[in-house]
Structures are given as structure tokens and as C-alpha cells.
Amino acid sequence: MVEGLYVYCVIGTGEARNLGPFGIGGRGDVVTTLSYRDLSAVVSNIPMDKYVVGRDALLCHEKVLEKVMAEYPLLQVLLYTIGPYAVEFRCLLR
């Protein structure tokens, strides 16, 4: 199974965070931050070859955003933003 990263939003902190095991896809993937300097993408792992698009995914995405908004202002990214490598997202944060 090929793994990718699902991106929920970008926040203005370089602090490493573990937000809990409720990533999109229902596997209990940990939602965490991927940082570059004072910016972080909020991400979780997701299978690249098989993921479900639907109501449950939308609700999970919203749950993550609500948790993050309780602590940080955020820049939401497009729903279902998925990429194969952490290094690509760090380059985008630059």
C-alpha cells in the first residue's frame, strides 16, 4: 500500500504538534504538523491507492479544522489535498 499525506490546513507556528489519532480514512492515523520555520502544515497519513471520498471524510476534515482553530488561526487548504512526500510540502511552505 502506497502512503501519502493528507493536508488539512496551514498554521503559523513551527512547533511540532501531535493532535491525536483521528486522521481522515478511519484508520486512526495521527494528525500532526509538518513544519518549516514558523509555518506548519497540519497533516496525516492516508493510503494513496484507496481512500474514500464522502460524508465521513468531510466530517473528519472538519473535526480536524475545529480542533486546530481552537488554538491557532489557520489557512484552510482545498478538501482532499493529498501528496506523496513530506519534502514536497516543506518546499511549498518555503
Main features:
about 90 residues; 2 helices; about 40% strand; alpha+beta
Describe this structure in words.
- The chain has 94 residues and is an alpha+beta fold.
- A hairpin with a 2-residue loop joins strand 3 and strand 4 (39-47).
- It contains 2 helices and 5 strands.
- It is 24% helix and 39% strand.
- A 5-stranded antiparallel β-sheet has the order 2-3-4-1-5.
- It is globular.
- It has one domain.
Compact overview of the structure:
By secondary structure, the protein is an alpha+beta fold. Helix content is 24%, strand content 39%.
Give average pLDDT, whole number.
Answer: 85
Sketch the topology as an H/E string, one letter per element: EEEEHEH
Helix content: 10-25%
Q: Which geometry do the CA atoms define?
A: globular
- Unreliable parts: none
Give the beta-strand count: 5
- Integer tally of domains: 1
